[in-house]
């Protein structure tokens, strides 16, 4: 007799929503929307809305396929053990079908309703997150998020391409900003959830190289990140609203990163410097991308 799979109750819509990592999606979609709204040409509102919807669906598909592939890891970490697959609320095949269907739909719709450039960058970002980051790098090297993090940096380029049909220097600098922002964003968090990753055998930097190296790397990545953040202003690609917000916001980021980088261990305070940097990293991107749009429309 072949062993039978335990029958799972039908998954709820909330479980499908959880597969898309909706909280992370908010910032991914926001940066995509700002890329679109900062472009020199405005698409028809229906096409613009469709483009943002496709970014959300594509990123949701990528998050779903990530959870389909690494349910074993998620089961070993406290932070992720309650996700639908490790918690046993959904079978893996449903997640796979949902992820592939959603991903294909988002790319085809982007290609047919918006343009092929935006569809091509969308498919690259989904494949980057799923194949390069999740399947190839995550379990192999502490540089996983440095390279794989590029996936999350594509949305501003997709938004701009959706509006104009091509890419340009400003959205490329926005790509660079998110790309260089990802290591401080993630390593700040990894410092305080290090034991989770160690238990699951994921080679994140604090696990394999230790806290001091991770802190130094956070400080080092902040330098080119700050340059990418401020550069659009002196280059004349944005005006004073973005320039002011980017300068003040980046100075605060650099200060928080410096505090983290110059410590050797974690403080006992309720708001540890690492936690403060992680939380601020999210607000920071919201502020800078918001300022980019404000500059384009108000200045
Ligand atoms: C490889 C790159 C990245 C890694 C490994 C990473 C990892 C994480 C992790 C582990 C969390 C913790 C909370 C959670 O599980 O939801 C988190 C939170 C978050 N990340 Fe990232 N992240 C990356 C890139 C990005 C990018 C590119 C964005 C958006 C542009 C982003 C936006 C967010 C947001 C908004 C949160 C807060 C979610 C909440 O409120 O719970 N992350 N990130
Ligand atoms: C447009 C498009 C396709 C964008 C997709 C890129 C995307 C969703 C980027 C966010 C990156 C992210 C959530 C990493 C989480 O790392 P993890 O998967 O290691 O985190 P976990 O431990 O919480 O699963």
Automatic annotation (TrEMBL):
Gene Ontology molecular-function annotations: protoheme IX farnesyltransferase activity
Main location: membrane
Protein location: Cell membrane
Transmembrane region(s): 24-41, 47-69, 95-112, 118-136, 157-180, 218-235, 241-261, 282-298
Any single GO CC term annotated in Swiss-Prot or TrEMBL for this entry: plasma membrane
Membrane topology per record: Multi-pass membrane protein
Catalytic activity: heme b + (2E,6E)-farnesyl diphosphate + H2O = Fe(II)-heme o + diphosphate
Main EC class the enzyme belongs to: transferase
InterPro entries assigned to the protein according to its UniProt record, in alphabetical order: Protohaem_IX_farnesylTrfase (IPR006369), UbiA_prenyltransferase (IPR000537), UbiA_prenylTrfase_CS (IPR030470), UbiA_sf (IPR044878)
GO biological process: heme O biosynthetic process
UniProt entry keywords in alphabetical sequence: Cell membrane, Heme biosynthesis, Membrane, Transferase, Transmembrane, Transmembrane helix
Keyword Transmembrane helix applies: yes
The protein's annotated pathway: Porphyrin-containing compound metabolism; heme O biosynthesis; heme O from protoheme: step 1/1
Pfam families per record: UbiA
EC number, UniProt record: 2.5.1.141
More details: Carbon 2 of the heme B porphyrin ring is defined according to the Fischer nomenclature.
Protein name: Protoheme IX farnesyltransferase
Name of the gene: ctaB
